[in-house]
Structure formats: C-alpha cells, structure tokens
Amino acid sequence: MILGICGGTFDPVHYGHLRPALEVMDALAPAEIAFVPNAQPPHRDAPGASPAQRLRMLEAAVVGQPGFYVDRRELDREGPSWMVDTLASLREAHPGRSLCLLLGTDAFAGLPGWHRWRDLLSLAHLVVMQRPGWTIPESRDLERLLGRYRIRDARALHDKPAGCIWLQSVTALDISATRIRTLAATGRNLRYLLPEPVREIIEQEGLYGDSGSA
Ligand code: ATP
C-alpha cells in the first residue's frame, strides 16, 4: 500500500491541506497519508502556534478519517526539519514500500531550494497537487527533473518504491494558513476554511492574536 507523506507547518491545518490529500489518497488507492508537522521550518519564520498546538490541531483534523494519521517524527528530532532526513527515516522504517511525497505547486516550485533536494527522488516519488494561484515556474532544474522523472501512468507509483513524479489534479481550494492567521488576528470568522474542531482550538487558546471569533 502506498504511503503518502504530507509535510508542512500546519499553522493551522486547513481544508486546502485536507481535501487535496484525501483526493490523492483516493486516486492512488490503496494508500494512506501521514501528515508530518515540521519542528523548525527550515524555509520560513517561526510559526504562530507552538509545535504542541500545531500537533493538537492536526490530530483533531484527521481523527475519524480512515487512512489519515499524524506522524510526529520531525517534532521528536533535534534541529531543522529537512524533508530528506524525514524520507530517509521513513524509508528505513518501510523498506521497499512505495513512498509518495505530496507537494502543492508552490512547494514544488521551491524544491530546488531544499536541502539535498536532488536526493529526494531516490527516497520517494513526488506527487504534485495543483494549488490555485501557482504554476510550475520555468526553471531549468525543474524542467530537467520533470523531463527525467515525470510519469503519465500512475501505476508506476505502485510498482516502484521511489523515483517518479506524478501531477495530480485536485479540487482547487484557495486557502492558506497565512490568510487564516490574518483573519484570526483581525477577529474575523474562520468557519468553513478549516475543520470546526481546529477552529475551536484556535478560539479556546486565543491563537494568532485573537479569539478566532465565531
Ligand atoms: P502558510 O500560508 O503559513 O505558508 P500553507 O497554507 O501554505 O501555510 P503549509 O503547511 O506551508 O501550508 O503547506 C504544507 C503543504 O500543503 C505544502 O506542500 C503546500 O503546497 C500544501 N498546500 C497548502 N495549502 C494548499 C492548498 N490550498 N492547495 C493545495 N496544496 C496546499
């Protein structure tokens, strides 16, 4: 069974993470998806919620969805959360299993800036999910990568443990955690952007500079 890996800061988790991940899981069935919150995001500023709060929100978001679970290995590790290290540790735990790293188009666009990014494909497949407002930029590195590894038939994701790139179309949801934090900071209603239990945690804990308001 394919193991999909959805890494991120999840500050907070929202439907733009959850719905595309569910659609990937269905498209690649049989599959399950591990959500992997990062400890110290290597490519961005410190998150607004603590790691424990981000973890709690993520756990509240996936509870009850078969095949979805939270993997806390990046939080339990010292130092920056390099995805290449995470994939290496997952590969060790699951030798021979097909691992698929899920990336929104924005994350894929930034891939050549990632630590040891060229090693990622020896550890996992990449599944790129369309994110509204983003296209794959013209970049020699990405063009070469796609030219070499892109597949047109998703069956290869089941047949091989790593090394392919698959572009998966998903429902376009123009939701970002940045926008949610801005809304929360100005006391706006967050309903229907993210699961209700997550909204309640934001409200109860007064995250992002406001009560999260209902
Ligand atoms: P922020 O706004 O704080 O940067 P974010 O909403 O982009 O956060 P992240 O936790 O940084 O969320 O994203 C984790 C992963 O989920 C990345 O691969 C990203 O591309 C993907 N992702 C996030 N939001 C969406 C969305 N609306 N549609 C598709 N993919 C998404």
Give a concise summary.
Helix content is 37%, strand content 15%. It is an alpha/beta fold and 214 residues long.
Could you outline the blueprint of secondary structure elements for this entry?
Layout: E1 2-8, H1 15-27, E2 31-37, H2 51-62, E3 68-70, H3 83-93, E4 99-104, H4 105-109, H5 120-123, E5 125-129, H6 140-149, H7 155-159, E6 165-168, H8 177-185, H9 196-205
The protein binds adenosine-5'-triphosphate.
Adenosine-5'-triphosphate binds at residues 8-11, 16-17, 20, 103-104, 106-107, 129, 131, 173, 175-178.
Your description of this structure?
The protein is an alpha/beta fold and 214 residues long. Helix content is 37%, strand content 15%. Strand 1 (2-8), helix 1 (15-27) and strand 2 (31-37) form a beta-alpha-beta unit. Helix 2 runs antiparallel to helix 9. The chain is globular. The site of adenosine-5'-triphosphate (ATP) has 18 residues, from helix 1, strand 4, helix 4 and helix 8. The site of adenosine-5'-triphosphate has 18 residues, from helix 1, strand 4, helix 4 and helix 8.
Low-confidence runs: none
Which hetero ligands occur in this complex?
Answer: adenosine-5'-triphosphate
Mean pLDDT: 93
CATH architecture: 3-Layer(aba) Sandwich
Q: Which CATH class?
A: Alpha Beta
Descriptive labels:
214 residues; alpha/beta; Rossmann fold; 6-stranded parallel β-sheet; 6 strands; globular; binds adenosine-5'-triphosphate
